[in-house]
Write a structure and sequence with these properties.
about 180 residues, alpha+beta, 3 domains, 3-stranded antiparallel β-sheet, elongated
């Protein structure tokens, strides 16, 4: 089911690209900004692997339009946090504690949030302050699923590209 949602978002981005960004001869700054905002929003919504992809693109203005790359830089340090109760559930599970058991430390606050996890400051019983990183709930299964989906999509696109190239060659009379 997630694959259908991801595919729908990718189609939405393709349509948005044409709608916002327009044909090559009529591209303007405002359309580029709209598309960049839609792309960033979609990647954040899809989470995990897609946020990582956006982070990669943010560091590669040589691969994509530099202004879109700049808009994706937000993904490098401003991912929304997972709800705290999910993180505490994960911590309890990892430590083998029951739902109502008290944690062996005090959560002092979130330090950072990234594509695959969140980092929290914790106060230990000894009085020391430490940091723990907690994986987002279900991120491992989601990442495996998304990578498998992207691999299949890449194969399909590769087949279409090869087929399309041959058709263009036939049309141009170069085969």
């Amino acid at each position: 089911m997630r694959s259908l949602g991801v595919l729908a978002r990718l189609i939405y981005l393709g349509v948005s690209y044409v709608w916002d960004y327009g044909p090559l001869s009529k591209r303007d700054e405002s359309g580029m900004q709209r598309f960049a905002a839609r792309l960033r929003s979609a990647l954040l919504e899809l989470g995990g692997v897609y946020v990582k992809l956006g982070q990669l693109l943010a560091t590669r203005p040589d691969l994509i339009e530099p202004r879109i790359s700049k808009a994706l830089e937000v993904l490098l340090d401003k991912c929304p946090a997972e709800p705290l109760h999910y993180s505490t559930e994960t911590i309890r599970e990892e430590l083998g504690l029951t739902e109502d058991a008290e944690l062996p430390f005090v959560l002092l606050g979130e330090v950072a949030s990234a594509s695959f996890g969140c980092v929290y400051r914790v106060g230990l019983a000894s009085g020391q302050v430490a940091a723990i990183k907690v994986l987002r709930r279900g991120i491992e299964a989601q990442a495996k699923h998304d990578l498998k989906f992207l691999s299949r999509l890449a194969r399909v696109l590769d087949i279409l590209a090869v087929t399309h190239r041959y058709r263009i060659a036939d049309w141009l009379g170069r085969r």
